[in-house]
Amino acid sequence: AQSVTQPDIHITVSEGASLELRCNYSYGATPYLFWYVQSPGQGLQLLLKYFSGDTLVQGIKGFEAEFKRSQSSFNLRKPSVHWSDAAEYFCAVKYNKLIFGAGTRLAVHP
Amino acid sequence: DVKVTQSSRYLVKRTGEKVFLECVQDMDHENMFWYRQDPGLGLRLIYFSYDVKMKEKGDIPEGYSVSREKKERFSLILESASTNQTSMYLCASSPDHRQAGEKLFFGSGTQLSVL
């Protein structure tokens, strides 16, 4: 069965530090891959998506993600975190339907 | 900008009550979805609809039903609310389900507490 795993439930980083949020999926074929962000009290907003082609994808708010087929991973990165990036981040994969990971809550220390 | 509006931000109901959660989108999207969000479980799909008067069960439909009488409105119904339905409910819409990986637009959510 298709599934998506976000190994880190909670991550804390200092403002200005780099960030990497992990996402792994299980299935043979390459799915469509997404990262969504949920700010406090808000719905989810799409950060970026990968369908095919260049494995490094640029998104909004300075985020990027890299698809690695050999590792079945689609990790989200940002070189320098801002306090406003504190939120919950969801990885999602789609084959015939969209499946969300459990989410990673990011806290940012000043 | 696409707007998905959920009628209530917070809702408190009693066990056994019939509960209606309303969702309206203003971009003429074909597809609408209801998810529930629980800590540690992410988002789980309850029901979805690809057209007016059409509905399909998602992964956790038990205890819920839906109604889509108009394209812009998708209602989630809890026939007899139970405490295990206390959760955050998120409505979403997207333009065309035939476009694989289409972008979902989410409402701000309704935090439902069943006492």
Number of helices of chain B: 0
Q: What is the percent of helical residues of chain A?
A: under 10%
What portion of the residues of chain A fall into strands of 2 or more residues? over 45%
Question: By helix and strand content of chain B, what is the structural category?
Answer: mainly beta
SSE arrangement of chain B, N to C: EEEEEEEEEEEE
The general outline of chain B is globular
Low-confidence stretches of chain A: none
- Strand percent estimate of chain B: over 45%
Largest interface: A-B, 21 and 18 residues
* Secondary-structure element string of chain A: EEEEEEEEEEEE
How many beta-strand elements of chain B?
A: 12
The average pLDDT value of chain A, as a whole number, equals 92
Measured on Cα atoms, how large is the radius of gyration of chain B?
Answer: 13 Å
Largest sheet of chain A: 6 strands, mixed
Number of E strands of chain A? 12
Shape of chain A: globular
Helix run count of chain A: 0
Mean pLDDT of chain B: 92
**Whole-angstrom Rg of chain A:** 13 Å
Please provide a written account of the structure:
The complex is a heterodimer of chains A (110) and B (115). Chain A is built from no helices and twelve strands. With 110 residues, chain A is mainly β. The radius of gyration of chain A is 13 Å and the shape is globular. The termini of chain A are far apart. The model of chain A has no long low-confidence stretch (mean pLDDT 92). Chain B is an all-beta fold. Chain B has no helices and twelve strands. In chain B, strands 2, 5, 6, 7, 10, 11 and 12 form a seven-stranded mixed sheet that branches. In chain B, strand 5 (31-38) and strand 6 (42-49) form a beta hairpin. The model of chain B has no long low-confidence stretch (mean pLDDT 92). Classes of the chains: A mainly beta (110), B mainly beta (115). The interface between A and B is medium-sized, with 21 and 18 residues.
Summary, kept brief:
With 110 residues, chain A is an all-beta fold.
